[in-house]
Amino acid sequence: MEVASAVTPIPQRLCAPPSAPSSRAAAPRARAVPGAAAPVRPPLSRPRQHRRQTRAASADPRSKSTEYNTAMKDQMGWDHISPFEYYYDRGLYYHEVEPGVLCGSQPRNTSDAEYLASAERVTTILNLQQDRDLEYWGVDIHSIARRCEELGVELCRVPARDFDGDSLRNVLPRAVRALEEALRPPDARVYVHCTAGLGRSPGVCIAHMFWFGGLGSLDEAYEALTSIRPCGPKREAIRGATFDLLSGRQPGEFADLSPLQYASLSEEERHVLRYNVMRA
Question: Catalytic residues, which ones?
Fold first, then answer.
């Protein structure tokens, strides 16, 4: 949202220094066989929600949510809002989209951070919000950061502009690197969030599945996540970031490419891409 920020930013840092990419594979997914009944695959994660009474910066958080949802629909280019909606007063809403990777809405306060640490055993929170987002919703990031430190939870910030595909494209390599690094320790669990958990954070998770998981194409990664969590991140931002990492060409040249280019990766391309991500 276009709101002037009065938030003093906390340091924006990655979770760990760069290291060689791991060979950890994504969870296997059931595939349909031509001529056979499609297998029934239970979802990797049920929708999870944590509700707690809290005070928003506005006396009417629902009115802020309505304003936000309208802007989100218009600027994301969606034909409708439902089910792509966010309501601040409903609390955390998230799904486990990869083993150890939870994608969802913003922690609003220290209680939400405590819940993620205790109920979901989260070890890292990866925040993609800008300061203006925090100011709009009245989120005290400093209190959350202090509580995370007390809980032993790493708080990483890699801000991207809300509803902006170019901004997401630019930060994807750093955000995916932060996610991949955060997943390295044994028993690591990472909560990836933006504001609503419908654009920026699922975009990062899809890019991670495409670049570091075992899925063969961007469409496969996109379908894998959106079949678990209803959302509509900007697919072309992910393909554009893939082009940026692999081609060595000017970003503006991406617009002239076939929509099939950089939507799948050879093993050699994936190796080069992972190397470049970990140097981002």
Answer: 194
